Amino acid sequence: MTTLPDTLPSTIQGMKTLPPYKLVSRDNHPQNTVIKLGTAQIGKGTTIIAGPCAVENRETMLKLASSLSSLGVHILRGGAYKPRTSPYSFDGLGKEGLEILAEAKKYSGLPIITELTDIRHIDLLCAYADIIQVGSRNMQNFSLLKELGRVNHPVMLKRGLSATLEEWLLAAEYIMAEGNPNVILCERGIRSFDSYTRNTFDINAVPAIKNLSHLPLIADPSHGTGRRELVAPVAKAALAAGADGIMVEVHPQPAQALSDGQQSLTLDEMGQMMAQMKSVAPQLAG
Prior knowledge:
This protein is α/β, with parallel strands linked by helices. The chain has helices spanning 10-13, 58-71, 95-108, 122-128, 142-148, 165-177, 205-212, 221-225, 228-241, 267-277; strands spanning 35-37, 40-42, 47-51, 75-77, 112-116, 131-134, 155-158, 183-187, 217-219, 245-249.
């Protein structure tokens, strides 16, 4: 009968098991990835992304873009195509929304991020957006991820509603494996048993992902909580935990917003939060 040695050979002892997400892993790429976009450097310093859940009309979007720029926001968000739980909810203005976003970019100087919901819209979004967002519902839409791996645009990949960290990182691997290295991860909360908040923001994920991967990580406390009064505290917590930035929803009149008004900050609240965040992100000062 063959007996196993008491100790393994030194060559085996020294081997480290590599994770299945080889390109995404920090083991493969020890230095932090920094994605440059205009004056913003995502992955270096603190990046602030803000704007309404959905583009509703031209006048509101232009005024909001100008105000957010003056507050020190780096990137403007706004949904032209919106995946909604109910088929009767407002699902965006489509191409008209993209045209409004492009005008808001020209007006404010802010690059824009908007969500891709349909693989057939990739070329259209690439013509207008600076960053393409993959929402939670599409995190494991592998055909969509592969196509985004073949474009020359940064992609923000949101964590799925119930996705493990490994599933999330493997979704990012799909994009990078096709040749696009410019992937940004976004922690936006996971589904739990508690109904007080819309989701449970997974603060553990922030330092865990920064340990596992070299990719930039943005926190979304708006979707992570679903409650306006919790957005600023969770944003500060995420930055303190090591997030590279935050993405929040802002609307001039949240009560009249066509989507996600309950989690959207007013402009005054956004200004207050920016001031508060300087205690954990001093580089925001000035």
